[in-house]
Each structure stands twice: as C-alpha cells, then as structure tokens.
Design the sequence.
C-alpha cells in the first residue's frame, strides 16, 4: 500500500487501527507511514482518545444482558405460535413457489402444498407449543434462582457482560435502578442484583482497579467470565491477564539454505528437543543433481517459539521467514459458551424424560431433540479439542534446501548447421550427397526434390550426423558444390536445472544439418553495372549481344522489347556473367553502339565464400533506337492526304444536307402545286 | 456467513418459528444498537426492536436471499426508528438530573463527569448521518468486527472502513475540547 494512499485515507485507517481491524500487512504499512508523518501521528493520538471516550460512554448504553430474553418473551406474547403462523407460512410458501414455476404448475403444486401443510401442520402446532413451553419457561424460572443470571441470559458474549470490567456494569446497574424496574426483568431477582452490585463495589475498591480497564483486557476477561472459569458472581478473583486466556495459534515458517541437509536435520532435531518440542513430520527428496531438499514440521511450546526460531536461523542462510498468530479466542469461547448452553439444554431434556408425564408423541419429540443436542455437543467438544491441540503447540515449518539446489546435472551441446550449395546439376549433386552419406553414421531425416515450372530444381535435406563424424561429413558435402551459405549454431542446454556448474558432464548431441542444393544462385552479385546503348537497329544488336553473352559464359536473366508509336525501339536486358568474363563482355558492348550512362556498383562482402573468379556480376542494359523526329502521322504526304480526305468528307456532308432539305420541302411544293393547279383550272372553267 | 447460520435464516424465512426465535436471540442486540444510534434513547430503541421483530416475522417471505436476512432486519429497524424520531423529535430529549450530587464526594464527582461526557458524546452522535451512527453503535455496543457490521447493515465489502473513518473523524472534531481534558 503506497504511503500517499494511506495519508489520503488516514481517517479510515485510524478507525480500523483503533478497532483492531487491520491485517498484519496493513498494520505494518500503517505503522511505517505513521513513523514518517507527524501529522498523522497526532491524529492517531486523538483517535485513541476518541476510542477510549466512546468505550467509556457509548458502550454502556448497549442492551442489557436480559435484553434478548425480554425481546423473546414479548415476541411470544405478541405473536402467538398457533395464530398467524399458518397463514403467513402458507402465504410465504405460495409466494416463493409462484415465482419459480409456470402458472398452471404453480396452481397444482400449491394445492398439493396446501394439502400437505393442512394435514402436516395441524398435527404439529400444539406439540411445538408445548415444546417451547417446557423448554424455555423453566429456563427463566431456573435462572431466577441462579446467581449466574446475567451470563445465562445472553447467547452472544460481548464486552458488556464482563463484570470484571466494573465501571460500565456498575453504571448499568445505576441506570436500571433509576428507571422503574421492568416487569420483564423479573428474571433477575432483586437479590442477585444487590449481591452483584455489592461485589462490584467491593472489587473496584479493594482491587483498586481503574474505572475503565484498557481495551485489550476487555475481551479476555469477558471471555474468562463466559468460559466458566470465573463465575460472574466471583469478581473478587484476581484479574485475568490477557496472555492467560487468549487462545492464540502461533505458527512460523522458515526457509533455510544449508550446506548439508542431514547435518542440518540432526541439529534441528536437537534444537527442538532443547525447547521441549518434537519433529512432527519430515520429508525429503533427492534431486537428479544429488542435492537434498526437504520440509520439516516441528511443534514447540508457544512460549519457546521465538527462542527456537532464533536458534534455528543459525543452521544456514535464511531465505525467508514468516511468523503468524491466529487469534481464535472469540471462536473458542463462543463455542465454549454454546457448548455449555447445549449441555444445560441436554439436562433439561433429560429431566423432562425422567418426569415422563407427556404423551408418547411428546416423549418422542423430546428424544429427537435430545439426539440433536447431543450431536451438537459432540461436535462442539471436538472443535474445542481441535483448538486446544493447535494452541498447545506452535507449528514451525522449516524448509531446508542444500546450496546450489538448481545446479544442472548435465549439459547437452546441440549443434545445428545450415548449408546452401549451388550446383549446376541439382539432381546429380543430390544423388552424390545421398550415396556419400550411406557409409557414415548419418541419418537422413527428411529429403525432398522439387522442380518448379521453369525447370529449376531444388533439393532439401535434413540430416542427423553422429557428433564425432559431423565435421568430416559436412566438409565432404561442402566439396560437392559451390557453398553459398553456411552457418553453425551451437546451443548449450542445461538439464534438470539452471545456471553454471563445474561438475556437470557435457554431452554432444547429434548434429542436425539442413542442406539446400539449388541451381538458382541466391548469391548476390559482386558487381552491378547499368548502361544504355543507342543504336539504330535494336533487334539486330540484341541478337548480337546474346551471342556475345553465351561466349562469355553468361546467363540471360530477363529481356523485354518494346516499340513506341513514334518508332523508338527499347530493349531492357538483365544478364549475369562470371567476374572473369565481365571485362570482355563490357568491351564487346562498344561494337553494338554508343554506350551511355555507364554506372558500376560493387558490393564486396568479406563473408562470401565465393571464388572471386566465378562470382557473378549483374548487368542491366538498355538498348534503344533514337525516335523519329517527325512521326509518320505528321508528315507532309499524310497531312495533304488527311486534308483532302477532310474536304471530300465536307462535300459529301453538304450533299447530304441538301438531300435532307429537299426531302423536307418536296411535300410542301407538291401540295402548293396541286392547289395552284386546281385554282387555275377552276378559274378557267368559270372564265 | 457459515452454512449453519445460512440454514438458520432460510429456515426462518420458510416459517420455522424456532429458527426465528434463535435469530431473535442472536440479532436483537445488534438491532438495538442500530435503533439506539438513530434515537439515542434506550426505551424507544427497545420498542423499535420489538416492532421490528414482529414485522419481520410477518413479512419474512419477502426475503429471497437468506444471506441478506440480517441486513433486511436492520433496514426495518432503521425505518422504524426514523419514523419514531420524526414523529416526536421536535421535542428535545430532556437531560434529567435525578438527585443532586455532593461535590465533596469524589466518587460522585467522577460519576457526574462521566455522565456529562456521556451527554456530550450522545449530542455529537446525534449530528452524524444515520448510517454512521448505526455503524458506531454496532461497533461500540457489541464490539462487532467489521465484516459482521457490514453484513448487519447490508454494506458491500470494504465500505464500512470509510464510513467509520468519517464517523470517527466527525466525532473527534466535535468532541475535541472534551478529548483534550482526558489525560
């Protein structure tokens, strides 16, 4: 928990601290914050005083010991067992069921339930009532006679009931005296109250105890009173110190590193005997590297625990230590109180059996109840015994481990080699490698031979070679082709442990060789040249170049040819030649045409194992013709031809247009002509 | 909550009267503390607890989850107490002093001082929010651990620390003069 968080939330930490609700870790963090923060320390002082004041004033307002019984009897008066119970029980049942099942099913089931309840409950109620009457009423009557009324009255023990803590109890007596006496509290006889008060007075004077004991002493004393060791009416007994009555389970854990396990175990046994303890369990295991490791559980008397731990730490190097205390005081005395109640109940039930007055069914009920109570008693007794056993001895768990526990037992050297071979004839080399390996202590794990669409073959093999022969075998394979790449990885694997060890054996595992034989040199060119050649006849020159290339032992890797609309021809060629023929080839380019833009880039790689003679050189080459200045389409002849063609086309267009116009006008002309002819004819006939 | 407690609550919800009476024995002190926190009056708080128990018995079927039974009880008690406080808290609770105390009597003087401090504490308590009061009284009446208080008040895990922290802070601030007189 970071310090700032504590500081910001200091109030809740303070409260939890005074109320003893911090866990061990939290308390440590809180204390360390207080150590460095005077402001919070001041607040803590105030908080403690506040706590004390509240305990002095508020705590005595708590319900009096007879409170529960009073509540119970009033409840019984107000809600008689026979009435209301059945109705609301039925209502409750139907409600619960109705929520869970479908409507029809609910109806049916409820009817069944009603039937069950009516038949079952009607027989039960009177009997139940009788049980209450006989089991609880005598308790009240009995209690009135006893001096221990205050303790008997309550089931839940609280600080309030501790008569050893005189002030609140005394005040309470005054209070209850100042109020008019309740009829319900008749369980407390006036006698008992007076006696108690007298005792308390005596005690506060005689023992000279402060009005309010410190907080810590509350619980134990209260517990003591409840535990039955000190009856409530004997407060004159010496005050109980916290250590006496607390039920603390102490346990510790030690992690030790020792040089010798057996010696340490012997000494540990001796130490345990010195402190009146004993070894409860012991187990050890031997690891592959010969080291011993074990866990020992030791029981010592709680008061000797610290001394024992101090001594045990001397056995070796302390790696880890935890010390814990489990306070079971409350649980213990709760159980104890319940146990005594149960026993009292048992006695009463036995009395009822002895009186033997009721009906057989009542007796059976009592028997049943008795069996239940006895089972509870046994269970609680077992619980107490268990606590006792845990409290009696502190448990120390010691883990002993010899030094260098994780030292490896052995190392394994694992070598992996990757080899790429260049071979002009992959199949042949592949066969050679296979036959070469037949005699050697070698295992071919995997081998494949692939051929792609362009006829390129690639062989892949994975081999396991016996370590003593690996160097010879790898050297032989290397000689079968041109080595393009070779690397060897060595891995050192620790077995059953980690770290360094001087004594561990080193073993060589089989060497794994991943071999690739291929024709396409993945090899990078040593030299890259790019140039342009201008020539008028591109196609011819390309053919010449190809011949020169094959003479030089080179390889054409790619070639493209294109012609532009303006008649320019471009060929892009990539080729690869061995370095020894490079110079000759470049010279031959001069014959092809004018060489332009020559650039050379050389990558010298010291790591390449390639022979400088055979190492490849790449050439990117562009052969092109100069484009025509005037293209075919823009020449004179073509221009005239085009112009004439356009003129003819225009003429033809106008003729077509005239035709169209005639086609439009003709019908009108015909119509007009016809009309005028008719007019003329009519006029002639008249005339 | 352990399984026996769980079974007890479930039995009570299903109408087992004996189980309910057992719950009265175990829970009524806590209910008293809750009611007192709100009312600061023992008689009234006791009546509230009584009413609460009767009401709880009659409406117990409303609780679906037995885990929440204690929280449900304390909610009823809080509502009842609040109603009662609202009804007649307009009349301030008189601080009656019964018999005159002889200052010469040392024991009586101490008692007087105790009584005054008790009144101051109660007055300071009355100014706190209701939930804070209930948390304080549960803690100081019954010395309950935080987990139990949270269960009783139906708080979620860890909320109580903050509540009690603030409650204690407010109380400290109000009672600072009184605290200063304590050695």
Sequence:
């Amino acid at each position: 928990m970071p310090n700032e968080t504590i500081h910001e939330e200091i109030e809740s930490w303070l409260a939890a601290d005074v109320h003893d609700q911090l866990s061990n870790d939290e308390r440590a963090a809180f204390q360390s914050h207080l150590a460095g923060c005077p402001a919070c320390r001041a607040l803590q002082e105030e908080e403690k005083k506040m706590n004390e004041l509240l305990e002095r004033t508020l705590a005595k307002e708590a319900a009096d010991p007879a409170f529960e019984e009073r509540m119970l009897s009033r409840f019984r008066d107000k809600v008689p067992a026979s009435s209301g119970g059945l109705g609301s029980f039925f209502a409750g049942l139907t409600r619960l069921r109705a929520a869970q099942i479908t409507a029809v099913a609910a109806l049916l089931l409820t009817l069944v339930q009603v039937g069950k309840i009516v038949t079952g409950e009607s027989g039960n109620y009177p009997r139940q009532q009788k049980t209450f009457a006989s089991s609880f009423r005598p308790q009240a009557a009995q209690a009135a006679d006893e001096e221990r009324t205050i303790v008997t009255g309550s089931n839940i023990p609280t600080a309030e009931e501790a008569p050893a803590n005189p002030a609140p109890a005394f005040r309470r007596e005054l209070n209850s005296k100042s109020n008019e006496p309740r009829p319900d509290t008749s369980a407390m006889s006036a006698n008992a109250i007076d006696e108690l008060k007298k005792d308390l007075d005596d005690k506060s004077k005689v023992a000279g105890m402060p009005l309010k004991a410190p907080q810590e002493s509350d619980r134990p004393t209260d517990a003591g009173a409840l535990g039955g060791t000190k009856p409530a009416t004997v407060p004159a007994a010496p005050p109980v110190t916290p250590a006496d009555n607390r039920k603390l389970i102490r346990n510790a854990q030690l992690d030790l590193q020792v040089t010798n396990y057996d010696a340490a175990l012997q000494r540990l046994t001796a130490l345990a005997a010195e402190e009146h303890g004993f070894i409860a369990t012991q187990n050890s295991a031997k690891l592959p590297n010969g080291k011993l490791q074990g866990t020992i559980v030791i029981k010592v008397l709680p008061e000797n625990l610290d001394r024992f731990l101090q001594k045990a730490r001397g056995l070796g190097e302390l790696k880890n230590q935890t010390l814990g205390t489990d306070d079971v005081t409350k649980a213990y005395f709760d159980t104890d109180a319940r146990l005594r109640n149960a026993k009292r109940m048992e006695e009463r039930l036995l009395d009822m059996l002895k009186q033997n007055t009721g009906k057989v069914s009542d007796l059976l009920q009592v028997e049943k109840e008795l069996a239940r109570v006895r089972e509870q008693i046994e269970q609680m007794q077992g619980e107490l015994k268990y606590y006792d056993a845990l409290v009696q001895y502190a448990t120390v768990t010691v883990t002993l481990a010899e030094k260098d526990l994780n030292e490896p037992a052995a190392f394994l050297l694992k070598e992996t080699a990757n080899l790429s071979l260049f071979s002009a004839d992959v199949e042949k080399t592949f066969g050679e490698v296979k036959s070469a390996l037949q005699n050697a202590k070698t295992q071919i794990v995997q081998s494949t031979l692939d051929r792609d669409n362009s006829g390129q073959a690639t062989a892949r093999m994975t081999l396991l070679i016996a370590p003593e022969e690996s160097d010879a075998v790898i050297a032989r394979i290397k000689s079968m082709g041109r080595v393009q790449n070779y690397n060897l990885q060595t891995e050192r694997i620790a077995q059953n442990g980690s770290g360094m060890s001087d004594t561990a054996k080193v073993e060589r595992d089989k060497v794994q060789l991943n071999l690739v034989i291929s024709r396409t040199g993945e090899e990078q060119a040593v030299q890259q040249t790019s140039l342009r050649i201008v020539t008028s006849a591109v196609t011819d020159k390309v053919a010449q170049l190809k011949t020169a290339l094959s003479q030089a032992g080179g390889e054409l890797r790619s070639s493209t040819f294109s012609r532009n609309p303006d008649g320019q021809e471009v060929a892009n060629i990539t080729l690869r030649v061995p370095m020894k023929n490079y110079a000759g080839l470049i010279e031959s380019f001069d014959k092809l045409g004018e060489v332009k833009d020559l650039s050379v880039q050389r990558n010298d790689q010291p790591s390449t194992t390639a022979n400088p003679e055979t190492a490849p050189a790449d050439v990117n080459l562009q052969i092109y013709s100069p484009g025509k200045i005037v293209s075919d389409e823009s020449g004179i002849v073509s221009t005239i031809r085009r112009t004439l063609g356009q003129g003819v086309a225009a003429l033809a267009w106008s003729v077509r247009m005239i035709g169209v116009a005639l086609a439009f006008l003709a019908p009108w002309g015909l119509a007009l002509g016809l009309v005028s002819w008719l007019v003329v004819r009519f006029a002639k006939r008249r005339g | 909550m352990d399984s026996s407690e769980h079974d007890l609550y479930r039995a009570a919800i299903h109408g087992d009267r004996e189980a309910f009476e057992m719950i009265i024995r175990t829970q009524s002190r806590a209910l008293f503390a809750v009611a007192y926190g709100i009312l600061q009056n023992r008689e009234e708080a006791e009546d509230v607890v009584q009413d609460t128990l009767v009401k709880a018995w009659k409406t117990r079927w409303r609780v679906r989850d037995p885990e929440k039974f204690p929280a449900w009880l304390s909610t009823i008690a809080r509502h009842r107490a609040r109603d009662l406080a609202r009804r007649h808290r307009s009349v301030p609770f008189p601080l009656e002093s019964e018999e005159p105390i002889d200052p010469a009597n040392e024991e009586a003087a101490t008692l007087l001082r105790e009584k005054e401090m008790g009144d101051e504490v109660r007055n300071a308590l009355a100014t706190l929010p209701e939930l804070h009061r209930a948390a304080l009284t549960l803690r100081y009446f019954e010395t309950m651990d935080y987990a139990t208080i949270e269960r009783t008040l139906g708080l979620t895990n860890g909320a109580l620390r903050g509540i009690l922290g603030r409650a204690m802070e407010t109380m400290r601030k109000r009672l600072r003069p009184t605290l200063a007189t304590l050695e």
Notes: The first helix of chain A runs from residue 3 to 8. Confidence is low (pLDDT under 50) at residues 122-190, 199-243 of chain A. Chain A touches chain B through 62 residues (CB under 8 Å).
